[in-house]
Amino acid sequence: MSKFRLQSIVFVLTAFLMGCNEFMVVGVISDIAKSYQASLSTVGFLVTSFAIIYAICTPLITTFTGKFDRFKVLMALMLIFLLGNTLTAVAPNLFWLFVSRIITAAVAGTIISLILVFVTMIAPIEKRAMLVASTFAGFSIATIVGVPVGTAISNAFSWRDSFALISVLTVIICGFLYWLTPRNSRQANASLGNQIQLFKDRRIVLGVVVMITLMSAEYTFYTYIRPIITNVLGFSTTDLTWLLGLVGITFILGNMCAGVIANRFGITKLTVISGAVLVCLLLMNAMFHLSWLGIILLCVVCFVLGMPGSILQVMFLNVADQEYPEAMNLASSLNPICTNVGVSIGALTASISINFVQINQIGYVGAIYALIAVVGSFYLVRAK
Q1: By CB distance 3.0 to 4.6 Å, which of 307, 327, 346, 376 could disulfide with 195?
Q2: What's its membrane topology (predicted)?
Q3: pLDDT tens for residues 131-166?
């Protein structure tokens, strides 16, 4: 196996680990609450607080460390991540659990952004879009797959074991990163002022808007994916794990298609993709009346939602590489940041909306965000 292929695999697995660490919590919240004798609402704040810390710390740490050697920064942050995740697995009480989640949230986004920069460095231009899409897919897939995986491990053993497994894998991945990651990759002229020049570009701003609104649209319904499958669609709890896995597979397929689309069409199909999300969300209420039609619709919408993240990340990196090279670190962090901002907005919107609409009507709420994404995509495709 060539060194390039090994590097690609390790980078994808690193991003996947970061995503699993974040989203496994969703599948084991009930078990965590039971083990600490805490309320679901208190433990549920783990998800929101992680996303908030992630979104705040990622651009700060990314820009602050931009003037240092990327390899050394990556290895240091991986060590901090390992310590934080291990603390999650052994946290003696809820206070230390929150501390551990803050530690991992603070560094996870910068780790992914550095991984994406290294991908850009090692990949030939003709392979860049596919490799960036594959690497970012590692994180994106974990947003879907992390839930059933965490649930399955928790059911078979305990919720602590799911995080212990991540720590073991992190040690292995760190060894490969030390071996395969390029050295001597200090970023020149990476001052804060130089990096934020990136946001003067209209394409970047519109891309951020599109990504945040699409993630918000997704998490208005995915926040309640378990009750949607069991309570609305009427499937049993024994069917839940494999149905969540099926939905996750469609998301993976969407990510795989994204690399091809980014290579052939760039961002020109984003309006169509956003429009497809809007249509699916508007159809939810009608199609949720039939169990299998509802599952098919969930698979279709997750397939489509698997595409824009990678397409936009390729655009962010290409714009920075061509016109703002000093802002490569910041550009590489935009998609993970947007993902977590969108998750926070979508989950909060879902929590508020559920008091006013039935759960089978939650698609109408997400459609509002999808409509904004359609408009943003329309102007982004035409932006210079």
Answers
A1: 327
A2: Multi-pass membrane protein
A3: 777 776 676 667 666 667 777 777 778 889 889 999
* CA gap 28, 163 in Å, rounded: 11
What is the Cα–Cα distance from 113 to 256, expressed in whole angstroms?
20
Phi-psi region of 266 (alpha: psi -120 to 50; beta: other; left: phi over 0): left
Give the number of other CB atoms < 10 A from CB of residue 381.
16
Cβ atoms of 247 and 225 within 8 Å: the answer is yes
37 backbone dihedrals φ, ψ, rounded to 5°: 55, 45
Instruction: Report d(CA 299, CA 305) in Å as an integer.
Output: 10
- Counting Cα atoms < 13 Å in the Cβ hemisphere of 205 gives 9
Cα atoms in the Cβ-side hemisphere of radius 13 Å centred on 361: 6
Token duo for residue 274: 């956003």
CA–CA distance, 154 with 171 (Å, rounded to integer): 21
CB-based burial of residue 129 (10 Å sphere; 0-12 exposed, 13-18 middle, 19+ buried)? Answer: buried
Q: What is the 3-state secondary structure (H, E, C) of the chain?
A: CCHHHHHHHHHHHHHHHHHHHHHHHHHHHHHHHHHHCCCHHHHHHHHHHHHHHHHHHHHHHHHHHHHCEHHHHHHHHHHHHHHHHHHHHHCCCHHHHHHHHHHHHHHHHHHHHHHHHHHHHHCCHHHHHHHHHHHHHHHHHHHHHHHHHHHHHHHHCCHHHHHHHHHHHHHHHHHHHHHHCCCCCECCCCCHHHHHHHHHCHHHHHHHHHHHHHHHHHHHHHCCHHHHHHHHCCCCHHHHHHHHHHHHHHHHHHHHHHHHHHHHHCCCCHHHHHHHHHHHHHHHHHHCCCHHHHHHHHHHHHHHHCCHHHHHHHHHHHHHHHHCHHHHHHHHHHHHHHHHHHHHHHHHHHHHHCCCCCHHHHHHHHHHHHHHHHHHHHHHHCCC
pLDDT band at 101 (very low <50, low <70, confident <90, very high): very high
User: Residue 306 has what pLDDT?
Assistant: 86
Residue with tokens 């946001």: 199
Structure tokens that stand for 233 in this block: 């669609």
